Write the structure tokens for this entry.
Amino acid sequence: MLVKQELINKIKDYFDLNVYETKVWLALLGKGVASAGEIAEISRVPRSRTYDVLESLEKKGFAIIKIGKPVKYLGVKPKIIIEKLRNNVRTEAEERVDSLSKIKDTNEFTQLEELYKGGIDPVKREDISAALKGKSTITNYLKEIIQEAKKEVIVCTNAEDIKSKQKLFKQTFDYLKQSKIKVKIALSGDEDLIKQLANLFEIKIKKVDIEAKFFIIDRKELLFYLSKDKNNEDIAIWLNSPFFSQAFAGLFEKALGR
């Protein structure tokens, strides 16, 4: 059974296997049931390595041993493997999230916070402007500065983006309203979707034709995206500049006719 190298490379990456494991698993899937010798011949994996590879695949759940003699092996159906890996990833992610959450309660985390706030050269937000890269990095930073707002948050983006993160924004807007912080939102995009979001968030949303994505916090801090191209990595600029933020807010309100 000849298998193209391109397929071997892709399957190897998809399922996090090495080359020998991939070749043996593909041989098993193609043969159905096979002995170690048959697998070595079909897969062209050295016979001396085939036993170790089969043992590794069995432990990972990609192969099972058929009861009887001589010993033969069966390849596990790809659909079952995918479901198994999905469950493993989900479990590992949940355990990791739980582990990270518990770090906040440790003495070491307290020391990290103290080091950040009062080190030899402590970081002061008013001294910093920065470029942020990556969706999760930008989202986490945006969430932090919004939650530290004291008076007002201005949001200008597109409706589809808000919809894709509606759970996060619902929590954020609810928090701002409970804290009696003024929220001004302008969205571009489908008018019906904007109305749905306004009803969901229970907040007034203005439709605009501005193709921009920015957030202004207390007219002191401004975070704006540099690109709307979904194929490129998200990049945003964060500025802590009251002068620039106030000017930007003034242009925003002028565009809204306020």
In short: The chain has eleven helices and ten strands. The beta strands are 33-34, 63-66, 72-75, 130-133, 152-158, 182-188, 205-207, 214-217, 221-225, 235-240.
